[in-house]
Every structure is written in structure tokens, then in C-alpha cells.
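Review session, final week

We close the course with one last complete record, chosen because it touches almost every idea we covered. It is MFS transporter, a protein from Nonomuraea zeae with 480 residues. Go through it on your own first, then we will talk.
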Amino acid sequence: MSNYLERVRSMTMSPDARGSGIVPALVTAVFGYSLMQTVVVPALGLLTRELGTTPTWSAWILSAFLLSSAVLTPLLGRMGDLYGRRRVMIGVLAANALGMAGAAAAQNVGQLIAARVVQGAALALVPLSMAILRETLPRERLPSAMGLVSGIVGAGAGAGLVVGGLLADHLSWRFLFVLGALLALISLAMVARWVPGGRPAAAGRLDLVGAALLGLSLVAVLLALTQGPSWGWTSAGVLGLFALGAVLVAVLIAVERVRRDPLIDVAELTDRPMLATHAAALVFGAGSYFFYLALPMFAQQEPGADGTGFGASITVAGLLMLPGMLAIIPAGLALGRISAALGSRWPLAGGFAIFAAGSALLALAHADYWQHLVFYGVVGAGSGLVMGALPKLISDIVPPARTGTANGINNIIRTVGGVVGSQLAAAVVATGGTGPVPGSAFTGLFWLAAAVAVLGVAISPFAVRRGAATVAAQPVSERA
């Protein structure tokens, strides 16, 4: 443990500022966001009962957070590039604390959903943190620091499932958001104390037209994905939303091509390494959500005729996922050494390969507690490498002035992948009908996760450009 703390502390020390708290401040801020991303999941049933609402409305407690994140993250990432990352991060943390306080005091589901919309801004903490790391840390420490912060995203999400279960089982649901408010305030104080102000990394004006078009297109697509199961995938509403999203994307591309300071650099998106990096994020998001749905469901299901399920409590179901989530952190910390020893392309490909191996092991054997603990730990180790490699690859591709924006878009693409993965997982689980989910459905879902990870392995070599370190200083549109 002391060795681990020493490594974390060493990454916070630039040559000019030994003992600084940059990395601990960013880790705390990102952990607070990631914890609150999932902490409400175990409490959804409780919230439905205590707020006197329906499962359809309580589902919006999650969906509103997701949609708000999708709309606000690219915009806030660009604001950080233009006006200073520390300044924007402090504003995001303050808004998050207010959103948490509003949720803790909510008297009905409408007020709670509105508070969750405000909380959605917190996803921007991830790309803002990556941009701050890039501008404050020496290059040799950057991969491990990015891997650590990325790993905290996964570890916090896993901890949220456990903490949410404990609070839902033993205390009021309001303590979920009291905890979130305290974490936001602590993070705010740490960022204000230790993160340097820095100068704006980019010049120009905020592209509000591009932000509006991007936000509306994301809302249309995500609404179609989340409402597809209840409305019907071939219904006029779902098809209309997909069509609207496609039209808005086409208009967005046309508008951004002619803007002097666009939110979306179209040349950047069509550049092969960047396109592959975004595709890897989409694939990873989908694969991760297979497990977020399947493992808690398997653990909490009472054993049926085929013996599938453990009949465990919410808390135990979360604890079964905890080793996998914690494995993300050391894997992320190893990113720097792996990149230095083997090259930039191997952490992403290796992470997907380990993810695939863990998924296959779960597909072959998942009838005992220890198999969930150990094999999902393998998945977690692979996840840590992937999550750390993505922002490092982006920093090798884009100039510093677009680090926050590009990471924000990558995070949103991973979120879209998560929505796709959750809907695919729900469809596979639904093949069992209205009774207990059969073991064959879980087996099929784990094999699907392995197949998706293999696709990630195939994509990975295209995410690296030779000589990336020398070309990242210029915009994609200016490269030969």
C-alpha cells in the first residue's frame, strides 16, 4: 500500500512543483463523478416506491443524467480549452454540488430528475482532467497519470454499486446525494488549492451553433436507443428520432466545415487514428455495459429450474463486482511502463485481449461466486488498460488546444456505446421470457462481450500514427 501511495504522490510532482496535489485533486473530482454515476442504480426500486412514481419515470433518473452528460460534456470541454480548464472545472464542481443538494431535498420525481440534469455536467470532469494533466505533468509521467485517472472512472462506478446498495439497504436514499454533495465540495476545495490556473489553450469564440446541433443530435439518438424497447424499434417515434439524429449530424458537419473555430473538427473525426480511437471507445462502452447489467442480475436472481442465480442481496451483488472494478487502477498505473517497453499500440490491443479472455472465462464458468470474482477481475484489468490508453492516444493525435474537446467527444462516444450495450444486453436477457433468466442467456451475453472485445483488438492497430509525438502539435487539418 505504501508503494502504491508513493507512486501516486510522485506523479503529482512536476520538476517545478514538488509535492503538488494536482493528481490527488483530479482523482478525487473524477471519483466523485463516477461514484454518483452508478450509486442510484441499486436504489431505483426504492426511489420508485418512496417517491410514489412508476418504473418508467424512475428510469429517467438515469436517462436524464445520461442525456445531460451527452449534451454538456463537449461544450464544457471546449470551454475549458478556450477559457481555462481550472476555471471551468471549478464551475462544474459547484454546479454538481448544487445538483446533489437539490436531489437530496427533492420532494417528487420531477424535482429529482431536474437535479440529475444539473449533475450531468460532471462528466466533463474527465476530459478536463485529462487536459489539465497534459498541460501540467512532464511527458514521461503522463501515461501513468492518465491511466490512474481513467481507472478511477471504472473503480468509482463499481464502488457506486456497493455504496448505493449499502445506503439503500440501511439508510435513506437521500444520503446517496448528501454523499455526492460532500465529495463535490471536497473536490472543489482541492482543485482550487492545488490545480494551477494556466492559460487558455485555444483562441477563438465558443461555437454555440455547433454545440446546439451536436446536443440535439445526441439527444435524438440516445432517446431512440433508450426508448426503443418500450416504444418498439420499428415504431414511428423511434425511427423518427433516428432520422432526426441523422439529419442533425449532416447539418452539423456542413456547418462545422465552414466555421473558423468549430467545436467539431471534421478533418479530425475522419483522420484514421482518431476515427479508430473513437471506434474503440464505442466498442469498449458497449462491452462494459454487458457486465453492468448481467452480473448484478445474475447475483440477485433466485436460482431457477436450471440453478442460475445466487439469490444475493443488492450489497453482495455489488461486492461481487468490486474486485473487477479495483483491478482497473493498477492496470491503468502500468500503462506508462507498457507503452515505454512495447510501444503505444500495445496497451489498447492488450487491454481488449485481456477483456476478451475474462469474458470467455465467464462464458465457460459462472456458476460459483469465486468465478465471478476472479474472472471479472480479469475483465477489470483489461478495462484499466483500455481506459488509460484512450486519452493517451488522443493526446498523441490532437494539439494541446483541442485536448479537452477531443477527450469530451471520446467520452460521449463511449457513453453512446454504453447505451447500445445496455440495450443489446437487455434484448439477450429478454429471450428468456417473463420468468427467471436462463443460464444460456447469460452465457450468450458473456460470449457477446468476448466477441466485441476481439473487435476492439482488431481496431487497435489503426488508432496509432507513426511519429505521433511529433505531429500532435499541429491540427489534423494541417497535416500532410
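Two points worth writing down before the exam:
Residues 1-19, 468-480 have pLDDT under 50 and may be disordered.
The chain has three domains: 20-196, 208-258, 265-480.
Good luck, everyone.
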